[in-house]
Design a protein that fits this description.
By secondary structure, this protein is mostly helical. It has one domain. Helices cover 69% and strands 8% of the residues. The chain is built from 3 helices and 2 strands, in the order ααββα. The chain has a two-stranded antiparallel sheet with strand order 1-2. Strand 1 and strand 2 form a beta hairpin. Helix 1 packs across helix 2. The longest helix is centred in the middle third of the chain and has 36 residues.
């Protein structure tokens, strides 16, 4: 996560928006760490927990929606939100 903060906030505004090659390289390296490190880890973790909840029938129903029981903990919801945000940011950079 610190790599994401460095890449998104500090390094983009260095040198008044006109970064040199070194800063671009550092920004790229930080983003690479975030995307290749965090996204697969979070994705595998959530898929495993979701599959386990579905197989064991541990689903919670609110209204018409059913979701896995493990998402009742706030930490797991935040991690899922982080995963969705990282995937959306990654797809934005690919465009």
């Amino acid at each position: 996560m610190p790599a994401q903060v460095i890449a998104q906030s500090f390094l983009q505004h260095a040198n008044d928006g006109n970064p040199e090659a070194a800063i671009r390289t550092i920004t790229f390296a930080c983003r690479l760490i975030v995307y290749l490190g965090n996204i697969p880890f979070l994705l595998v973790t959530h898929v495993q927990k979701m599959r386990a909840s579905i197989r064991e029938g541990e689903m919670v129903k609110i209204g018409l929606l059913r979701y896995p029981n493990y998402l009742q903990k706030a930490g797991n919801v935040y991690k899922m939100g982080l995963l969705v945000c990282l995937i959306l940011m990654h797809t934005y950079y690919l465009l």
